[in-house]
Fold:
Amino acid sequence: MRTAICPGSFDPVTYGHLDIFGRVSQLFDHVIVAVSRNPIKNPLFTIEERVEMLKSVLANYPNIEVSSFDGLTVNYAIERKAIAIVRGLRVISDFENEFRMALTNKKLACHVETVFLMTKAEYSFINSSTVKEIASFGGSLRNLVPPVVEEKLREKMKNLGLVKEG
Ligand code: ADP
Structure:
């Protein structure tokens, strides 16, 4: 069985991420969408909330599993017997960082490949930070995130008192 891991923060999951997951699920037998517990990043959503949102939007993909992990992505890939780490590429500026990470991961585990999928043009501008900023100004998120994520974002912004006047 060929397993791939899609690691990330997914704070929160967007249509850009979902497009990549859908395509990866056709290339591999089993896909693990793995939410990183990266203590350096300061996420808006808790790990449990991010996992829950991912599970809800990926419920119709029988070969996709959602999980979370601590520590290095390569170690988690080895532990889960994944043969590939899949990352999405949006813009040229993603490339440098992704290239460095892929080379580092190759050094740490030479049998785990990094696979890059190019974003679809219509999703190339979407990222989680922009989505959070739009939500904080009460803007429309209709074509950026699934309805369940939009609802959670609005709720979170309201609870944290983060909704600003647009
Ligand atoms: P990280 O903190 O690891 O970059 P993200 O949640 O921002 O986590 O992204 C996870 C993965 O999804 C990365 O490979 C990123 O390049 C990819 N990604 C994010 N947004 C998009 C998008 N709009 N189109 C394609 N890939 C994307």
The domain at 3-124 is CATH 3.40.50.620 (Rossmann fold). The chain has a mean pLDDT of 93.
